[in-house]
Amino acid sequence: MADRLLCETDMAFQLFDWLNVESRLSDSEFDGETARAYFDLSQKLAADHFLPHYKTSDMHEPRLENGQVHVLPEIGTALAEFRDLGLFGASFPENLGGMGLPYLLSSASYAWFAAANCSSIGYTMLTGANARLLAAFGNKVQIDTFARPQIEGRWFGTMCLSEPQAGSGLADVRTRAVADGADAHGPRYRLTGNKMWISGGDQDISENIVHLVLAKVPNDAGDLPDGTEGISLFIVPKVLPDGTLNDIAVAGLNHKMGNRGTSNCLLNFGEGDGAVGWMVGEPGQGLRQMFMMMNEARIAVGFGAAALACRGYLLAVDYARERLQGRAIGQREGAPVAIIEHTDVRRMLLAIRAYSEGAMGLCLYCAALVDRPDDAEDAALLELLTPVAKTFPSEYGPKANDLAIQIHGGYGYTRDFDVEQLYRDNRLNPIHEGTTGIQALDLLGRKILREGSGLKVLERRIDDTCARAEAFPELSGNAAALRVALSQVFSTVDAVRTHPKDRQMDNAAPFQTAFCLVVVAWIWLDQAVAAHSLEQGLPQNDRLREGKTTTCRYFFTLELPMAAPLLAQVASGCDVTRTADPALF
Amino acid sequence: MADRLLCETDMAFQLFDWLNVESRLSDSEFDGETARAYFDLSQKLAADHFLPHYKTSDMHEPRLENGQVHVLPEIGTALAEFRDLGLFGASFPENLGGMGLPYLLSSASYAWFAAANCSSIGYTMLTGANARLLAAFGNKVQIDTFARPQIEGRWFGTMCLSEPQAGSGLADVRTRAVADGADAHGPRYRLTGNKMWISGGDQDISENIVHLVLAKVPNDAGDLPDGTEGISLFIVPKVLPDGTLNDIAVAGLNHKMGNRGTSNCLLNFGEGDGAVGWMVGEPGQGLRQMFMMMNEARIAVGFGAAALACRGYLLAVDYARERLQGRAIGQREGAPVAIIEHTDVRRMLLAIRAYSEGAMGLCLYCAALVDRPDDAEDAALLELLTPVAKTFPSEYGPKANDLAIQIHGGYGYTRDFDVEQLYRDNRLNPIHEGTTGIQALDLLGRKILREGSGLKVLERRIDDTCARAEAFPELSGNAAALRVALSQVFSTVDAVRTHPKDRQMDNAAPFQTAFCLVVVAWIWLDQAVAAHSLEQGLPQNDRLREGKTTTCRYFFTLELPMAAPLLAQVASGCDVTRTADPALF
């Protein structure tokens, strides 16, 4: 069962052979053997407790009764197992009650669970992000009171950013926090406002829920400050420390296409006297604090999307091996063959593998960067690659799941087969934690045109990969193609710099599409090189090397070439979208 | 309400200005005015009776109780209205009780209904195809007994091709038809076998159901003939002419991702003494008969996919005009703007429009070809374009719906907004009536390498369009690009002819992707030319001309350029998928 979640061989290759995770563990108490045991445990727990209710949690959505959200009990049971093994605290330091695991290891573990049941494990991701924010910016009492129970997995957490009238536009947040003295937990406020799209916003499977809420403190005239500068961050628990319920009402549940096990709520804060909340850190720092965590949150979305794509790949491979239909072209005699014998089915499998393993590799690479914040090169590269790690898996993961359905034919369109649900579940990922369009602005505007240092690091790493690839005849052509593509990225960026300032973002989206292709081509080539360095003559290594090389070649042949025409349009300053009059539509 | 189904202005432009439908009506009793009245009626009926239960029929799937399938009663009510207006017979000749409408008109009407509720109108499409097959190949008694009640809309029809073990592989059909004498309806047989994926396979909203079943007649030793040559076609009604129930059991209902209003059944024929059926035409002609209808069935799938995409476009445009969020780049003051002001939202709207209107144009063009079977050029072009009319809308329609969700942000991911359902409904289309991969084999293998005359016709038509486009400065660049792309198609085909026979289909899928882009680029350019020929100075004409020109330019800028790198790989005989060892996956 477990090997149907993610490809164990590939995950081991990526972590131990490609990213050489054991060398990174040298200064932690973890060693390679413990890491492997941790993965085994994750796989087993995911397969035994998360996968079995994957379909059930899709069929039985959270429901709202008398103001309380009820979720499928199996979700609570699975998360209790997760908690009892201490996994909520996996990546937290030991002095906070955690295990002190590197982010790379804890996020690889997360991928197993996301492959098994993305909406159940979603609660732990939100809880971890919440506790990490508190650990970074809260005072000691706040950490002890609100972070530690989350690290223990007894309380769960949420992030309350969006409002019904302001989704991605946080400058327009209207939730109001009025000063109400102070106590041991810090400066106290009363909050009033509506928060939309709150994942885990209410449920009945944790003892308490810690909401981290973005809100604005009115000035003396009672007006809220303009822009994002006036946004502060508040801790607003469902149950107050004195055991009474806070002034928070569940105004509604969103009924989603997929990802249904994670409740998603409209919360009304302060329908009565105002919800009690405590400010985290200094006033006006809310967005900055939230964005300190954003890289990890965005990479986590990438991991989730990649995991769903990888599971779909395994399901498609199994189906293609088992399903007998048709004969080779020109053959009319004999028994039907397994559909994996048909060239076009293999083309789809190669595409799915290229997207899913490439996405997973990209996310693992970025997770390794997260673990080295003090390395200036790694930090710069992480900034550059974060929108890519969010976007490529989110956009190509659903494409991979789409092809997995196609391989299943009519069966894939029915709810009896998990590929159908994977496709719906994965559709969320291009939307949350910053849409694909917002990532494109971040990538081209902030990370490349404004900062720029990450691109130079990427250039050096790609150059290094290509140099190593050139030693292998079957990879040297790919290396040459990658060098050409990278130079086109640079010339495109140079061209965009010459465009008028107010037009430089006109083609951020096609630029990002092309940039993603170049980055993932590099990930594939780098993995193919690493696969060539495995010990020769062992059947499992030979198979892995041939699989990586073939998929790499597929990506360079039928995917990377799409970058050039897009970059050419970006460089030329194509104005078709900017000049399109809104009245024409 | 009605104008939210399809863009009325654009449909009128495509039919009356671009395809000049009035000139085609000259030898029918229909004139332009009657055609417009027919469209108004279709729109109104679709909006009043089909749209209102779009969401309801998704939420309340057909259910099986005591061997009988029950569908949402609103579906029956809507189809009764459709029947009472005589619309089941719209495209049938008057001597069969129909209205004698050209296929172009009846299929444009179908598009309105498909936009409103694809799964409810699906029953009429199946019924029409069934009756048309009977009218073409049945004897007089069969036509009177089984076709006429369908043309009247009292009985519904199905097509029973697939079996659980043989989806697209019809050579492996195992349903057995044993001779059982003859009667007024023709040679009688007893059928035994299982048929899978039968849309409308059972329901409780028509008086009877006429199944057209592909089956094989065993030889004297009791063995079924190999291959597709032994397949015959049988009429197997749910209720026999004597009023008794035939030996057909509903073995199960498929629970689909979307398109839920259309019941989809596994039918067991002959659990008892064998289901009674009558052969249509000669033995061994079943597949040939079925494929005589296949062009229309495939174009109808294209229409459905295009209609869902077009409706999503209108919903996305409305949302983008109404939703206020964010400010222009660099602006921090003032109120939030409508998101249509953001360049990237307009990019998505242009993409949706390019896909959806392009798909609709392609289908309408093909429908016009269906109406001229005696014109050798048109007939050859229809053969060539049928897989394109099936594939482009099926593949790009879901992409359009995907972008419509993206424009809606989180709201688009909820079941409160129809874009969510459109996306699920449209996912069926790349699968049924021949998957995208099967269309690619048909396009490159049969229609181009084996037949080839359609490609020459296409070349002349594209040449004609380009010549007319060159008269308009803002279109001449597109004409030049299209000529280059077409010449690359020809050189690619020439290259493929030089490849070894058993390798010529290796890259049929990327060839088809590129070919679709070239064909749809031509459709866009041809429409842009037609829009330039509209009377100048009328605001509605100016707006239409500018909209067509801008969308055409978008397609040539950011979509058509993807064709060249794909064609280059096809021409080079790229062997990455053929040589990929199944054991590697």
Automatic annotation (TrEMBL), chains A, B:
Q: Which cofactor does it need?
A: FAD
Enzyme nomenclature, EC number: 1.3.99.-
Q: Where is the Acetyl-CoA dehydrogenase-like C-terminal domain?
A: 461-577
Domain (Acyl-CoA oxidase/dehydrogenase middle): give its ranges. 159-269
- Whether Flavoprotein counts among this entry's keywords is yes
* Oxidoreductase recorded as keyword: yes
This protein's superkingdom? Answer: Bacteria
Q: Provide the alphabetized UniProt keywords.
A: FAD, Flavoprotein, Oxidoreductase
User: Which family is this protein grouped under?
Assistant: Belongs to the acyl-CoA dehydrogenase family.
Q: What is this protein called?
A: Putative acyl-CoA dehydrogenase AidB
Q: What is the lineage of its organism?
A: Bacteria, Pseudomonadati, Pseudomonadota, Alphaproteobacteria, Rhodobacterales
